[in-house]
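Re: the 297-residue chain
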Amino acid sequence: MIVVAGESLIDLVPGGAPGPLAPLLPRRGGGPYNTAVALGRIGADVSFCSRVSTDAFGEALVAGLRAAGVGTGLVQRGPEPTTLAVASVGPDGSARYGFYVEGTADRLFAVPERLPEGVRAVAFGTCSLALEPGASAYEALLRRSSRDGAFTLLDPNIRPGLIPDPVAYRERFAGWLPYVSLLKLSEEDAAWLGGGPEEWLAAGPAAVVLTRGAEGLTVFTPGYEVTVPGVRVEVVDTIGAGDTVNAALLHALAGRAPTALSREDWRELLSFAARAAAVTCTRAGAEPPYGHELVDA
């Protein structure tokens, strides 16, 4: 089983005519939530670990998990409101967000006493590791999962507007790396964090995957690096593309340690992730592909 730990939220995505007052359409979202849904659609055994509101948006989020085949046994519920993210989409399909997070349910996440038997991987990232008090709880789960021998994936998915003290966050990020098996991040994340793959690898991860948008993906390991190109498609928006990459990586690894992979293994794995992300980019909002859509892609 794969467990994805982190926030769920509602993306308010522009619809209709462009402009600052364009109608906003609600879409299920949140980096970890999207990753869990993508895993479920691909066909993985996956469970979501978070705190979700009992409001109407929260009910829709839980329904979306179940529809994708994602287990909800680790989902905590509470009366607090659902986090909202207002998205603006640029001419190239890239998205920027404004967040409404005060007093929302996912910030009150508590560390579960234990994870189910048979958990082989746990994924973390995005707002959940930036907003207290939940951030400390997710950090504790990351450390515990690593000590228990689980494969851990970290996608920082930086949202600068949610980080009041960048210096403190960068120090905290460095403290997570010894507990991370695979670090995946975008070029924008890397530029904001500073440092680079060699430095991050030395701190703990067995591999670092860097996404470059339409230009593709690169994996860095202690011995070599491998790059695959992006898949050219007509982009509607890029919402959820990076989260789909997380899911594809976790699914394609299938329990293998990054250190056991050859260059060709990584080339196949990254190519699968690029195809999956490309499908997501052809759809409005975070709508990752189903397994059958990737068989002949």
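The two ends are 26 Å apart (CA to CA).
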